[in-house]
Amino acid sequence: MPPPRYLQALAPLSPAEVNAAVAVIKADPELGPGALYGNLDLREPTPDEWRAHLAGTQLKREARLNISHKDRPGVWMVIVSLESKAIVSRRHFPTAKSAFQVEQLLDVERVVKADPRFIEACRKRGITDMTGVCVDSWSGGNFGDAGEEGHMVSYAHCWLRLYANENFYAHPIDGLNVAVDVKTGEVLRIDDHGGPPIPMTDIPYDPEFMPPARAPLKPLNVVQPEGTSFTLDGHAIAWDKWTLGIGFSPRDGIILHDIRYAGRPVVRRAALGELVVPYGSPERGHYRKNIFDIGEYGFGKFNHSLKLGCDCLGAIHYLDSHYCGLDGGLITIEKGICIHEEDTGILWKHWDFRADRTELRRGRRLVISCVNTVGNYEYAQYWYLDQAGEISFEVKATGIVNTMACEPGRPSKYVSEIAPGLTAPIHQHIFCARLDMALDGGGNSLVEVNSFAEPVGPDNPHGNGFFATETVFKTELEAGRRASAETHRTWKVINPNKLNAVGKPVGYRLHAKDCVTPFLAENGPSGTRSNFVRNHVWVTPFHSDERYPAGEYVCNSDGSDGLAEIVKQNRPVENTDIVLWHCFGLHHVVRPEDFPVQPTMSAGFALMPSGFFNLNPSNDLPRETNTASVLADGSIACHC
Fold this sequence. Notes:
Largest sheet: 10 strands, antiparallel
Number of strands: 30
CATH topology of the largest domain: Beta-galactosidase, Chain A, domain 5
Domain Copper amine oxidase catalytic: 220-618
Strand order of the largest sheet: 15-16-17-18-19-30-27-26-24-25
Shape: globular
GO molecular function, one term: quinone binding
Oligomer: single chain
Domain Copper amine oxidase N3-terminal: 101-194
Cofactor: Zn(2+); Mn(2+); Cu cation
Radius of gyration: 26 Å
Subunit structure: Homodimer.
């Protein structure tokens, strides 16, 4: 089955389109001189525009850009027509700050290490050779510190590299921090909070400095001699009964568009909207560690160029990613998105013992993935579509934990000592997925399902009764909800206008398996800015200006356009075009085994059909036997 041609309208910007959009800005007398280019991506259609496109109306290709200037405040949001090569609209946000760009982050280290005040602070700690000093540019948040008003602030943290390619995260220069204006390159302030001595134990992970590696295991190959079962047409893909478009944004990273099963729409748009990483240590300058990896930096810009046989196994198809740098120049990440198939084991099985007859179907899934590095952490992201109608997402966190120092054997209660004198703060990774739902078209609602035990009485004389109740939410404030283990709370999206075989609205259940309890004070500087973490589920009516859970412009923001504030409009969310926001993640009390490189920890969620089909949609899978499987001892045996 080829992917539908209508999906081509949702393809991410091509290199030619990126260059064309930048050229329009450069030619504009107001915006062009001295322009600093921020996020540049496709201006995606609204639900109404998309429905009109499906009905035959040509969809306009437009680019959305964030433009700022070193000598002027604020950010311009500009829409450029890629057909007429002209600016369609421009809006100025006078107090907003664009996301940090890669070039700016690299420049922070240069300007800090050249500052005489910083050099003197290092000298007081016994560092006379600045070559090995590593300055990581962390987002500065919004703490109201004097002298930071109006600046695009990074609050840098420092480490010491003892020799080339060495693991510098083993040697934090704890308590030495620098406030920097990322846009202008001005060092605003050196903060020397004091602190423990620099841990000097070498803890490498690079094989160049390690003992000989253990003996390798025998090869385990994923072989598809007849090729893959998916069909690609540009960024549109068809696999089994699924069709969808694969998008990309330098902010969001991977975006999935118009996901359909057997032609029936399920999700109009799916992507990660935000990731915030609050660290739990109030010591020295660590209270400012509350980084928004998507809103303040952008996941897509940090996509890895993936390597065949390393990041994914099997028969692989790659897609390149394109965006522009700070100066508007084209940047291409080759092989930034991976597409492949995976075996998932038994999908369903039953043995009819009376007839001694067994039916078994193995499942497989389509995987669309990428890997991002933001500072010390790697995030490997996987979108899965299976043969039973389920859409799921998994993120694997790895990389190197953020480190601090302590007097050996005397860590504070906010950290874990992972090596003598080396600590890592307790922290969380809280993701927010944005899911524009479209079950069987427009007109969707959110339902909450809670289970209760029936009290012992005439209706439940033996005490074994329990039941589930369903509540349809009518407004935004009603639909802001948290998980409940006591009632095994779940949520599902329904289309009340389409009924299944038993007369119930068709639906998809949100399997929210990794809900995290946030510990930030809601009225504190970091808790205010990350107010979207207060609930595990939010629902809003679609609005083209409400794209991200922490707001459009997150750097040094005040939280006023976060989800907790947006929903105070209390708009209707019943039987309309809704956006489902789901917060999930990891709570990480760090172990010594998480260093020097952390084994992957995973979190995610699933959207599974709940009355969307009249029976198991994988019931029609054919019988198959994998004849490539053999006995481990090499002897001949029959297959099933």
